[in-house]
What does this fold into?
Amino acid sequence: MRRTSLALLALALLAAAPAVRISDARIPATPPGLDMAAAYFTVQNNTPNTLVLTGAQSSRFRKVSIHHTVISDGIARMTRIPRLAIAPGSVIRFEPGGYHVMLMEPKSPPRAGEEIGLTLRFANHPPVHFNARVTDSGQGSQ
Amino acid sequence: MGLREMTSSVKWLLYWIVAIAALVAGLWLGGAFHHTQPAAPLTADVLPEPRPLPVLHLKDEDGRTFTNANLRGQWSFLFLGYTHCPDICPTTLSDLNSMVQLLKQQGGSVPRVFFVSVDPKRDTPPVLKQYLHFFNPDFMGVTGNLAQLHALATSLSTTFFYDPPSRTGNYIVGHPAMVFLINPQGRLAAIDMPPLLPKTMAQDYRTIIARTGDAG
It folds into this structure.
């Protein structure tokens, strides 16, 4: 009886936790006139399967793609990532100097404090929608 | 109090005196070392001998000529990047601004920051000015012809290159991820390697200028 209720509780918790959890989503504000920005966030795969991230989109930007910055011999290079595998139970951080969603050609410039909708697309999972907050990255931000 | 007990008390008193003397000596020695040794080990790579830069003939964000003379008389940080850079460049400029704000709060020498664009085709002086003003109005944009920029990069033991353009004509530039510290004689003194942490960069900067005894 007790075991059954524990199992039920675990099931309820699993059902409540999103299968793909996005946290700490942010877009550092960009200088005026610049037609590109980057989105950073953490993805947690709570599904029992390896998820294959194939792209991202946002109604605010005409071109959105997933990139990875690699620093080798002191040189920073960006490469486009067409597919990114996320193992079950694992967490991937999109952060400065690593993975990021490159946002190009904004329909209107992102302003500090606003929320911008983003969508991640997967080969084997329905799209995941989330909001990223535009953070102040100019003078005065610490 | 018997003689035996008295000897015992004297013994304890002696122990205490020795213990306190040792403690005082330890504190004194520790204090002396604290004053002669640098506060923390450096994260930056300091060159054993500052290295001269090539003859520079660049343009600043206001279209004025920028030469080696502009790097003399004060400590400066150089960062080589480009404005169409979504990740590393804005992050580094934001971190450099945080470092400058920290140094300002602490008082003492505050370095200048020069952003050298290695993408002169897109980064004209007005573009650079608008871009840098966003991070810190005191940051100065500099660029020039490719031969000059390559000569500067080579003297800093680094390089930059362009990836083939996409269908829409956008192209990615490979550029140095590190930040270069130039001394008031206009020579390369140290290199900050990523990850660039504002606190560490500020601490290293203070240690380096204290060692050279030249606040610029």
